[in-house]
């Protein structure tokens, strides 16, 4: 199975999912969701990525991940709104791209890694077999320390864990 992942939607601080691509306020974005997901087939799934490295930049979304996963209630709100979003637009999975949990300079707090594990373990109960889950992990040791990948793997709740690799041509 091949997955095509649309980048990026941004979650709101209250745990809800957005209706538009980041920074965009155009109805054409809704059409892009549908155009993207219309490409799905028996051999191609269409997923949506949430977050991204700039999600933790100074501004409105800086602490959004931390806020979204900090309590069972906020995680439940996030999961329910994500299911509604994916159902409405036809996505078949999601990639959680939180690159800086527990990194204070990037909006993180102590406890983020454990709360991310809770989120990943709680998602399949709501997703069932209808939606897939992946998590993007930081590619370097400094930021990878804010994750607990072994606990996420052992939960057997992640369809795949992908490592973000950036390639530069000199």
TrEMBL record:
<dbReference type="InterPro" id="IPR017853">
    <property type="entry name" value="GH"/>
</dbReference>
<dbReference type="InterPro" id="IPR001223">
    <property type="entry name" value="Glyco_hydro18_cat"/>
</dbReference>
<feature type="domain" description="GH18">
    <location>
        <begin position="1"/>
        <end position="170"/>
    </location>
</feature>
<protein>
    <recommendedName>
        <fullName>GH18 domain-containing protein</fullName>
    </recommendedName>
</protein>
<dbReference type="InterPro" id="IPR050314">
    <property type="entry name" value="Glycosyl_Hydrlase_18"/>
</dbReference>
<dbReference type="Pfam" id="PF00704">
    <property type="entry name" value="Glyco_hydro_18"/>
</dbReference>
């Amino acid at each position: 199975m091949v997955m095509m992942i649309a980048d990026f939607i941004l979650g709101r601080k209250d745990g809800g999912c957005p209706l538009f691509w980041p920074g965009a306020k155009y109805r054409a974005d809704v059409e892009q969701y549908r155009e993207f997901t219309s490409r799905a087939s028996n051999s191609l799934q269409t997923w949506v990525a949430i977050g991204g490295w700039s999600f933790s930049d100074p501004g409105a979304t800086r602490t959004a991940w931390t806020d979204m996963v900090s309590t069972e209630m906020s995680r439940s709100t996030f999961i329910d709104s994500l299911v509604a979003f994916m159902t409405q637009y036809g996505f078949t999975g999601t990639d959680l791209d939180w690159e800086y949990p527990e990194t204070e300079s990037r909006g993180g707090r102590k406890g983020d890694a454990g709360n991310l594990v809770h989120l990943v373990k709680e998602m399949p109960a709501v997703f069932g077999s209808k939606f897939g889950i992946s998590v993007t992990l930081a590619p370097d040791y400094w930021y990878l320390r804010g994750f607990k990948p072994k606990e996420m793997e052992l939960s057997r709740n992640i369809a795949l864990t992908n490592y973000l690799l950036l390639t530069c041509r000199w």
